[in-house]
Amino acid sequence: MKIQGPTNKLIGDLQVMGDKSISHRAIIHASLSSQESLLKNVLRAGVTKSMIDCLRILGVNIIENNCDLIVKGGNWIKPNKPLDCGNSATTMRLLMGALAAQNFSAELTGTPSLQRRPMKRIAEPLRQMGATISQNKAPLVITGGKLRGIVHHSEVASAQVKASLLLAAMQAKGTTTICQPGPSRDHSERMLSEIGINLQYDDKKVTLVPNENQINPTNITIPGDISSASFLLAAAITIPNSHITLRKIGINTTRTGILDAMKKMGADIDVFNHAKSGGEPIADISARYST
């Protein structure tokens, strides 16, 4: 990588890398379907590599072509070694939910930093559903079981807790309801609804009724990451003579606080070409130097 600066202005029209949260969910949702899924504009980073590496050990076939993935999963196999989640807590938490229904045991581990991260908020409801989990921090061993639906009241509004439990609920017997004290990112709900999973949700509650049919494939172009886009937007509105346009950025309302804040500060930002991708709202965003 060659970085040259400072620059007098920023001028350009570009597409930002795929959203991290949506990439994670798309990969693991696709891995649960026995049909072939096509995922485009997937974030290529250490955190998504950890997810892909773990899923391959579990028998999922993943073909990589730059930022596109072809995924064919279905019946997972017992891993022959620990699943190393690297430094990705999202990988570990989502895998816990998916592994809770498998008929084998798997060990999840990661970096020393990840091993200090708490997993209790996910482990406890998964135990209530029927899984066996050795402890509340990594390295941990999870043994799947015949899961039953539960009503879970979460103490905090957490998209990762919700996403993990929904992965388990898809494979459980009976309805699962997850209640939270406030809103959190709803990427899982949108994506699962898009592939035919029977669920209803609002800002504080999601209810999932598992389907008896096989899980449908996940075909999606991952929106550009609004979190990554925010740095470019901030630069454009503060560097004189700048004007940039970012294409197909995710504008999920649980993620766009940065745009609201910039506009309140008087930033010259325009959001246009509204569309949807995989149930997610997307748009082009332009930003100009703001005096």
Give me the CATH superfamily of the largest domain: Enolpyruvate transferase domain
Supply the CATH architecture of the largest domain. Alpha-beta prism
Strand content: 25-35%
- Helix percent reads 25-40%
Instruction: Give the total of domains.
Output: 2
User: Structural class of the helices, strands and pairings?
Assistant: alpha/beta
SSE sequence, one letter per element = EHEHEEEHEHHEEEHEHEEEHEHEE
CATH topology of the largest domain: UDP-n-acetylglucosamine1-carboxyvinyl-transferase, Chain
Strands, count: 16
Could you list the spans in which at least 5 consecutive residues all have pLDDT below 50? Answer: none
> Rg from C-alpha positions?
20 Å
* pLDDT averaged residue by residue: 95
Shape: globular
How do the strands of the widest beta sheet line up side by side?
A: 1-14-16-15
Taking the sheet with the most strands, its summary is: 4 strands, mixed
CATH classification class of the largest domain: Alpha Beta
Describe, in short, the structure shown.
This protein is an alpha/beta fold and 291 residues long. The protein has two domains: 20-220, Enolpyruvate transferase domain (UDP-n-acetylglucosamine1-carboxyvinyl-transferase, Chain); 223-288. The chain is 31% helix and 26% strand.
Q: Key features?
A:
single chain; 291 residues; alpha/beta; UDP-n-acetylglucosamine1-carboxyvinyl-transferase, Chain; four-stranded mixed sheet; 26% strand
Description of the structure:
This protein starts with 10 loop residues before the first strand and ends with a strand. Strands 1-14-16-15 form a four-stranded mixed sheet. The chain is globular, with a radius of gyration of 20 Å. The mean pLDDT is about 95. It is an alpha/beta fold and about 290 residues long. α3 (about 90-100) packs parallel to α6. The protein folds into two domains: about 20-220, Enolpyruvate transferase domain (UDP-n-acetylglucosamine1-carboxyvinyl-transferase, Chain, Alpha-beta prism), CATH 3.65.10; about 225-290. α6 links the parallel β9 (about 150-155) and β10. It has nine helices and 16 strands.
